[in-house]
Design goal:
By secondary structure, chain A is α+β, with helices and mostly antiparallel strands. Chain A folds into three domains: about 10-95, Rossmann fold (3-Layer(aba) Sandwich), CATH 3.40.50.20; about 125-180, 2-Layer Sandwich (Dna Ligase, domain 1), CATH 3.30.1490; about 185-384, D-amino Acid Aminotransferase, Chain A, domain 1 (2-Layer Sandwich), CATH 3.30.470. Chain A contains eleven helices and 21 strands. Chain A has helices at about 15-30, 60-65, 80-90, 100-105, 105-115, 130-140, 230-245, 280-285, 290-295, 330-335, 365-380; strands at about 10-15, 35, 50-55, 70-75, 95, 125, 145-150, 160-165, 175-180, 185-195, 200-205, 205-210, 220-225, 250-260, 265-270, 310-315, 325-330, 340-345, 350, 355-360, 380-384. In chain A, helix 1 crosses helix 9 (about 290-295), helix 3 (about 80-90) packs antiparallel against helix 4 (about 100-105) and helix 4 crosses helix 5. The termini of chain A are far apart. Chains A, B: One of its GO terms (cellular component) is cytosol. Chains A, B: It comes from Flavivirga eckloniae. Chains A, B: Belongs to the PurK/PurT family. Chains A, B: Keywords: ATP-binding, Ligase, Nucleotide-binding, Purine biosynthesis. Chains A, B: Its EC number is 6.3.4.18.
Chain lengths: ~375, ~375
């Protein structure tokens, strides 16, 4: 199939910032793109060839959209998987596969998948309803503290709570969930694996993620992670095994904990371009977005190593501000060495909403990390 | 002015590949863009916020378009300059300035500008009509060989001819022209200068341009140029002085000859993103396109040095093929180390038409140059 012609159509479910950055690279390859999103304000509205309005969780919307394209991919996991399964049966190539998405969409099923495939992850218990947790504690089957996670629709820290006392359980939604052992860890790491339809596989360098303590969102991503080689090797092997277990095509971002004993435990995965790979646009030989395209189009994969050290800072809405967004001091950060802001194009800010990110690249990773702190201190996403 | 809001509008005259790559970076900054082009098939049709159809040489089309934007820039020099002058008088910021474009659009005026500003360029004679050249030769005012150049609308080698004998003059259009001394040169070099509205100035590294002998089009651009430091310094100084002489805002690409004596002579300039800077997307800390935006929006300029060595190969239509384009062996080149194709999205190919370019980046410039030759040998732009 000739991807470099207008006879070929690539479908993307979701029109947010990940889709927007993916579209940038489709333009470079002149690939014809169709995007489905429920918002007329979606960042992907502009750079796609066709923008379709529709609910990603609606069977008909996804099915009818998917019927018009040759290859279908996602930029968000919360899509109607039944429709994807029907499309696969009719010969549409769907990457990631519906089966993978079904496993990942439910955190309990995702965790069970790791166990079944002999992949390291923190011990956990499954519950059909949060209300069952009290009884498990009373019976001695579960001990405090633990991490409560909603099985469905967790995204960026919502649906996750550290439970230290029984009171912490109050107010949690009464839904399917897991209680995961609270593992003290040194670092949160991530590895992005890319695998094309022919099965060629490459991994990006291990990155280190520093989280915002309150919002449970990634604050800095540091590439490569400043960890011992043997830990990096272990993390890379776990990520590769995870990609193989899913028989995955496209990008798979594997988030992991580095424990106090330097073991590596899978936290969760994302079968798409991921926040932990944004610095690849400036720092890597091939960006994660270009790699995702190469993989799903079954083209040769590009180099995954880095040209220079890279640090990514998320730009999230400041607390106390809601409304038309203003990027305060953006000119100040643009004066700094090797700084590139990426503004996602969302009109409205609200506390902790992802509004953009900033990449800092430098020959010297520690210098990049230092500048990243200056960036973080200077820029503020506020409202008019 | 807040560029990062939809109240601000950036206008771009021309919707070709340079505009397309510029738009990529406007998306990164979420800058609202309006593009004017005469073709409904223009590569910029997709990624702009507003696409306007209109003739770039038509006063009303350019004026009416320009009235709707805050800052107006170009991706091609052949635009109606009277309209730009009128817009400037009404307070629209026009970069490059109408005065600069008027000087550059006419090669005779451009050459005279260099002389008037004490900038080095090859000796030349001006003629109102080509027919006057014979008499000048007869009178001993001009000696063979020389380079004939049409004063108007030269682009990519059209309107240029090396005249060795009187017969070579036959068939040339009878237009305003210059006859330039044929200077034997070692290398063709280029330096891109970027200057923002506040007057901050930076230069990209000197690049080496290797030309296709027949088509008079750049075949390879090598960054940095493999020349002695003192020649690089001289070329950079000449480029900076040229930018200052124009009081230029935005990118100014200065093409130069390195003579046998290691003198540097200006060949011509382009007041916009330029073919000699495409490798900056992958090789430089800041791409030429991002720098152009930073400059015309009066933002701080980014780093202009390189992360890695870069070589650019132009993808032009192969001789003997006209019609719907096919990129033969594109998968072969994508297997090579550090290779990124950029497909401009033109449906129709014809001999020597610029259809795309390929960037090869590598820590080792000579290795990048070697791979560039493999790329050149492998890929072929043909028709269906």
């Amino acid at each position: 199939m000739n991807y470099f012609s207008s006879n070929f159509k690539l479908g993307i479910l979701g029109g947010g910032q990940l889709g927007k950055m993916l579209l940038n690279d489709t333009r470079k390859f002149d690939i014809y793109t169709c995007v489905l999103d429920s918002s007329n304000e979606a960042p992907c509205k502009i750079a796609s060839n066709e923008f379709h309005l529709g609910d990603l969780m609606n069977y008909d919307a996804v099915y009818n959209f998917g019927k018009q394209v040759d290859i279908l991919t996602i930029e968000i996991e919360n899509v109607n998987v039944d429709a994807l399964e029907a499309l696969e049966k009719e010969g549409i190539k769907v990457y990631p596969a519906s089966k993978t998405l079904r496993t990942i969409q439910n955190k309990a099923t995702q965790k069970s998948f790791y166990v079944a495939n002999n992949l390291p992850t923190a011990p956990f218990s499954r519950f059909t309803y949060t209300s069952e947790i009290n009884e498990a504690i009373n019976q001695g089957d579960l001990t405090l503290p633990f991490v409560w996670k909603s099985a469905q629709f967790g995204y960026d820290g919502t649906g996750v709570k550290i439970v230290k006392t029984l009171e912490d359980l109050e107010g949690l939604p009464n839904v399917e969930c897991i209680a995961e052992t609270l593992v003290p860890f040194k670092n949160e790491l991530a590895v992005i694996v890319v695998r094309n339809a022919s099965g060629d596989t490459k991994t990006f360098p291990v990155v280190e993620m520093e989280f915002h303590p309150e919002a449970n969102q990634v604050e800095y991503v540091i590439c490569p992670a400043r960890i011992p080689d043997d830990v990096a090797k272990k993390a890379t092997e776990v990520a590769l095994k995870t990609s193989e277990a899913f028989n995955h095509v496209g990008l798979l971002a594997v988030e992991m904990f580095q424990t106090q004993n330097d073991d590596v435990l899978i936290n969760e995965v994302a079968p798409r371009p991921h926040n932990s790979g944004h610095q690849s646009i400036e720092a890597s030989y091939t960006s994660q977005f270009e790699q995702h395209l190469r993989a799903i189009l079954d083209l040769p994969l590009g180099r995954t190593d880095s040209k220079v050290g890279g640090v990514m800072v998320n730009l999230v809405g400041a607390e106390g501000y809601t409304g038309n967004v203003v990027y305060e001091n953006i000119e100040t950060i643009m004066e700094m060495d090797g700084v590139t802001p990426h503004i996602y194009g969302k009109q409205q800010t609200r506390p902790f909403r992802k509004m953009g990110h900033v990449t800092i690249v430098n020959e010297n990773l520690n210098e990049a990390r230092r500048i990243a702190e200056e960036v973080k201190k200077s820029i503020k996403v506020i409202s008019e």
